[in-house]
Structures are given as structure tokens and as C-alpha cells.
Recover the amino acids of this structure.
DNA sequence: GCCGCATTTCAACAAGCGTTGAAAAATAAA
DNA sequence: TTTATTTTTCAACGCTTGTTGAAATGCGGC
């Protein structure tokens, strides 16, 4: 077998690129910074990935499939364990958010940088339209469909605006700016994803019900 | 009195810088791009503002005072017209958001770029800690105090997490990525700030009440 | 007219950028 | 071992970057 021995330097380049791109954005990072922090030569990034933009895309593709299937699995699991009416709004939001705690689950701290990078492109008027659809349109459609079923009679327009609010709250959480740490005087911690989701899930579920009509009543 | 003749080229540089920084971020824009789009020489930006970072800061300072006083005025107005119990959560959120529709009010389209730029730094792990506190800490503290009064018995931790969710939803709205336009198939429009706030205000208010307790204290 | 000052352009600098072809080193196959 | 292939480094390229000093332009006061 002459196949991929999976040299560790290639992965180190991806790890460092992930971290630096998440912190400073695509244009705020140079290939030399990435190479230096990874302890390799500049040309090695080009050898493995091609152009700088190709490296950027490679960072996204490395974890995309794993992330999407984890969240889709969570949705299907909560649908399977629900009655004929389908899962509640809380259960759907929970399935949407909880799989994102995979930094703790997998023990790989790179996930945190990856999610911060997702936040960066989702909030960017330049990168958003270029990358978000390709990465997440399928996933979002599945969750929107589940929410539509859990909120009978709701107008599509209202559901999308509510999803937009959810997406924004999530994005700022993933960005890990540490702003809430300072504002709250240390009472809240950006790095505490569990606390963030514990608060976000009931917050968002109540918002959906308020805007999309109370017909979708709260259930245990 | 040879006072400021306020050459229009200086303002044009700020306008273009505002627009391009909002779209591509600080590192994604060159001084030459700004100068070209403004129809001036590269060196003119340095003459008026100094270093590139000084120009970046000048863009923020141009509208900061106006924006903050508009929002603080709205808060004070809703407090003045309330009874002894103070304004409701909805009224406070409304005062927090509605003044941001000043692109329509003032007729200055630059406001939209400015707010997108605010969204950019608020979501950035690099720029956020550097700039958000200086610009908005006073304003946020005033609104937090009003919310604390409107939610008697709520734990500070819960209030800050709810504010974080509000800030995230607002940030993604200001970023103007157009993602909701595509997702909703045109039913929702990123540029329609009024529709965004019409949905965000009840959404967020319901979330605050759910998480921070409906009237008295929250469960253990 | 000329003068003084603010504004704007011109021209160029050193430094850093992404990228590439060829050499060197490491690894696998024989 | 020798050979073939992959991985990594070296060295350099053409180009762009932010910045600056000096020259040119505009303009009100004399």
C-alpha cells in the first residue's frame, strides 16, 4: 500500500490556519505566519493545498461532513423519539445546538477554532454568500421543515425571521469574542458553551412561539 | 478665522473606507482601493488621518456620538413616559433597536455601511475586545439597568446571557449578509430593517421573560 | 499683484506578499 | 543496496503594501 501516510505536518498546517483565520480573518493572516506557527516552510502549504484560497477551503472541508451529520443525526433522533405530532420547538433547537459542543466530546480543541471560523464567514457580507449556502443549506432546510411542523399555522416569513435571530445568537456565541465575560464582570463566560446553550434554547423557543403563534404549545 | 473649510474629499475617503471596511474587513481593504474609489491620491488618506489604523478609528468616531445619543434619548424617552414600575421589556428593546433605522430617517445611506462595520467588529475575536467596550459599554450598561428593573428578581447571569442573544441577533441583522433573502426564497429581505425589528422585538422580549422569569423570581 | 497656509498630487522607498521551479531529504518499493 | 516517489526546504521572482518627503495646486488676506 503506497497510500496516505498522513504526514503530521499537513494537519499542523490545517490546525494553525484554522486558528489564525478564525482570529484575524482570511486577509488578516499570511501564509508565512501559518507556516511559522506550524514549524514548516512557506512553500509546503502551496505544495499540499495550492493557492491560499484553496487552503482556506480545505480548512472548511476537513470538518464539514462530521459536523453536519452530527447535527442531522440529532434531529433524526429527536424525531424518532417523538409522538405523531413530532418533536417540540425546544427539542428541535436542542438538536440544532447541542452537537456543537463537540470540542468537549471529541477532546479536539480545534473544533472551537473551526466554529469561530464558521461564525466569521456567516457574519461576513463577503464570505457569507460565497460559503454558507454550500456548507449548510441542506441542514438548515431540514431544521426549518421540522420547525414548520412544530408550529402549525405559522407564516413562513415569521419562521425565517425567527431562525435568523437564532442564527445570530448562535453566531455571536461561536465567535468567542469574550465580550460577555467583560460585560458581566465574569458572571458569564464565552468559553462555557453549555451555559450559553442552556440559556439560548429556552430563549429562542419562547421567541419562536411568541412570533409564530402560540398554537405550538410547550411540552415536556 | 481660517477655520475648517471641510473639504469634500476628506469625507469621501471616510465614506469609501466605511463601505469597503464593512464589506471586506480591515485587512481586506488597501489604502489604494479606498483612494481609487474616492477619486483621490493614496497619500491623501495619510495626510488627513495618519496611519491606516487611524483612518479605521476615524470611521468609527465620525458617527459614534450621534448613534449613542440617539439610542440613549430613546431609552430616556420611554422611561419618562412610563409609570412608576418603569417601561416594559418590549419598550426597552424597542428603544434599543429602533434608533438604528437612521439610514431611512437621515437619508444618509452611509449609516447602513457603518452599522455593518459595527457588526464586523462585534463578531470579531480580534477587534471586538479592542473596540466594542470603548464604543458601547456606557450605552449597554444603561439598557441592562433598565432591563434589570423591568425583570425584578432575575439573576444577573440570566440577564447577561439574554442580552448576549439579543446582541447576536442584532449583529447578524446589521451585517447585511443577505443570507435570509436566499434561505427564505425572497420572503424576507436583509435590507428591510423595519421588518427585522418588528420580528426581533417580540422574539427577544419573550426570550427575556422566559429565561429571566415572568414577574417574580425564577426557579431555583 | 504677492504671501502664507491648507490641500492634493507625485514619485519613490523598504518591507512583505503569494507563488513557483529546482534542489534536498525522507520514505517506500525492488 | 539501488531506485522511484513523495515530502520538505531553499531561493528567488514579480507585485503590492503602507508610508513618506518634496513638489505642485488651490485659496483667502494683504
Amino acid at each position: 500500500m503506497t497510500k496516505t501516510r498522513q504526514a503530521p505536518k499537513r494537519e499542523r498546517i490545517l490546525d494553525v490556519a484554522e486558528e489564525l483565520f478564525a482570529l484575524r480573518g482570511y486577509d488578516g493572516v499570511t501564509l508565512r505566519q501559518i507556516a511559522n506557527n506550524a514549524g514548516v516552510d512557506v512553500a509546503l502549504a502551496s505544495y499540499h493545498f495550492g493557492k491560499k484560497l484553496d487552503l482556506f477551503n480545505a480548512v472548511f472541508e476537513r470538518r464539514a461532513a462530521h459536523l453536519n451529520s452530527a447535527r442531522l443525526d440529532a434531529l433524526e433522533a429527536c424525531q424518532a423519539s417523538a409522538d405523531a405530532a413530532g418533536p417540540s420547538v425546544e427539542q428541535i433547537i436542542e438538536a440544532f445546538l447541542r452537537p456543537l459542543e463537540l470540542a468537549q466530546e471529541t477532546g479536539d480543541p480545534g473544533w472551537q477554532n473551526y466554529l469561530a471560523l464558521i461564525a466569521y464567514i456567516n457574519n461576513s457580507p463577503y464570505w457569507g454568500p460565497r460559503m454558507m449556502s454550500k456548507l449548510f443549506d441542506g441542514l438548515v432546510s431540514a431544521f426549518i421543515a421540522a420547525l414548520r411542523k412544530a408550529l402549525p399555522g405559522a407564516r413562513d416569513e415569521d419562521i425565517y425571521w425567527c431562525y435568523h435571530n437564532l442564527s445570530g445568537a448562535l453566531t455571536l456565541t461561536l465567535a468567542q469574542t469574550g465580550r460577555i465575560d467583560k460585560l458581566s464582570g465574569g458572571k458569564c463566560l464565552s468559553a462555557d458553551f453549555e451555559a450559553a446553550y442552556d440559556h439560548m434554547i429556552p430563549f429562542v423557543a419562547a421567541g419562536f412561539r411568541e412570533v409564530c403563534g402560540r398554537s405550538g404549545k410547550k411540552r415536556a
In short: Residues 52-80 of chain A form the longest helix (29 residues). Residues 2, 5, 7, 9-10, 40-44, 47-48 of chain A lie near DNA strand D (CB under 10 Å from a C1'). Chain A has a mean pLDDT of 93.
